[in-house]
Amino acid sequence: MIDGADPATVRTALDSGDSLPGTRGFAGDLSGPDTDTPRLVRDVLGRYPCFSETGDPTTWSFDPTDLTDPDPVPAGHVRTPDGDEQVWTLPDPPATEDDAAVVQAVRDALAASTAAVDPDGLAVAFSGGVDSAVLAARLDAPLYVAGFPDSHDVEAARSAAAAMSRDCTVVELTHEDLERAVPELVAATGRTNAMDVQIALPLYLVAERVAADGYDRLAVGQGADELFGGYAKVAKAPEDPRVEADTVRGARREVVTTLPDQLERDVLTLRAAGVEPVAPLLDDRVIEAALSVPGNLLVAEPGEGVDRGDVERKVALRRAASEWLPDAVAQRDKKAVQYGSLVARELDRLARQAGYKRRMDDHVTKYVRSLVE
After folding, report:
1. Which residue range forms the structural domain that includes residue 15?
2. Are 70 and 60 in contact (CB under 8 A)?
3. What is residue 38's predicted lDDT score, i.e. its pLDDT?
4. Are 208 and 270 members of one domain?
5. Are residues 8 and 146 in the same domain?
6. Is residue 355 part of a domain?
7. pLDDT score for 24
8. For the purposes of burial, counting CB atoms within 10 Å of the CB of 56, is it exposed (0-12), middle (13-18) or buried (19 or more)?
9. What pLDDT was estimated at residue 304?
10. Of 58, 114, 191, 343, which residue has the fewest beta carbons closer than 10 angstroms?
């Protein structure tokens, strides 16, 4: 059983070593009809999770809660009783020198990936930034945003939706929502660290509302920041100590390698809320186009006297999206979801109200764990 792609496509990719065979990711058991021995696979960016019991790949599941001691299959690997073998690596093509050709390639990939999405039962997680706005412009599906009433994401989503002549459903969060959802998230993902929980909470709560409204699939903009240079640490390479690379493109590649761990969390979060994630920006076609983007179209170099923090990020994505979006939306900066929704601020507030003060080491994680003990 393969999740996310046809088994024949995965077998062909395995035989050829093609790490981007035209899917949006896959995982599962690729054993043939003539054997009971499992051959667990997971695509090169880990876009679908897959687990087996530690030391026993004959017992496996897409859901870690089905297992006693789940061990994730590493991205790009095959797992058999003989161990794990890496079979796919992310391509590392040279940068394309023609800027116009780069932008057109990204635009074509975005058009193809979104055109391939079935709109039946689909909603869009919409923050008002360029990532989700591309999905909103290209997909015939209702828009949803989650956040506290005074949050950046709620205001940005409302204003972007108005600029695009769209409606947007706002899921206003409360402290009670956070307290209820934290144990459910921890149970689904197995994670209690503050950062993972803060990121997952708004995804979970918007997905709950989407499911309650009758939709079973949620389009998300995951992958855009990693692929197109959306992080400050990429923009500041090589000066930023959070990356080892000495170029913007090298730093971009470093953050792309963090996707498997992030996507495992996000997929499990959304499934626990009752929806299946759809990630058009992580389509193989988009990934392939993004990997050839030169550094100057990931991060625009500042002019003389301009602070490094003021550079434009995700340049190629913004230029590609400008065909479908108002300029104000295509050029808008966004905050990370845990900050834009104010979930990080309010979870910190709850932790302090419960006696977990900031002077304590990792006080929010301690609070999270107290909610599930």
Report:
1. 2-86
2. no
3. 84
4. yes
5. no
6. no
7. 96
8. middle
9. 41
10. 58
User: What is the model's pLDDT at position 308?
Assistant: 43
Six-digit token pair at 71? Answer: 């061990």
Q: How far apart are CA 234 and CA 227, in angstroms?
A: 11
Same domain, 136 and 211: yes
**74 and 113 belong to one structural domain:** no
| Cα–Cα distances in angstroms (integers) from residue 227 to residues 211, 235, 321, 342, in the given order | 29, 13, 15, 25
2-3 sheet: strands from edge to edge: 2-3, 27-29, 40-42, 77-80, 83-86
User: What residues contact 143, with CB distance under 8 A and at least 6 apart?
Assistant: 123, 124, 126, 136, 157, 161, 166, 167, 168, 169
Dihedral angle of Cα 255, 257, 260, 261, to the nearest 10 degrees: -60
Contact of 79 with 259, CB cutoff 8 Å: no
Question: d(Cα 68, Cα 217) in Å, to the nearest integer?
Answer: 28
- Identify the DSSP state of 362: T
**What residue type is assigned to position 328 of the chain?**
A
pLDDT at res. 311: 81
- Per DSSP, 198 falls in state H
Same domain, 105 and 56: no
- Report how many domains make up the chain: 2
Predicted structure pTM score: 0.92
The b/e string for 68-80 (b: 16+ C-beta within 10 A; e otherwise) is: eebbbbebbbbbe
10-residue stretch averages of pLDDT, the chain, 373 residues long:
93 95 95 76 97 94 96 97 95 95 98 97 96 97 96 96 97 97 96 96 98 98 95 91 93 96 97 97 98 95 49 93 95 89 96 92 95 91
In a domain, 373, yes or no: no
Q: What is the pLDDT of residue 127?
A: 94
Structure tokens at 27: 């995982």
Cα–Cα distance measured from residue 162 to residue 365, given in angstroms and rounded to the nearest whole number: 38
49 and 168 belong to one structural domain? no
Radius of gyration for the alpha carbons in the chain, expressed in angstroms and rounded:
21
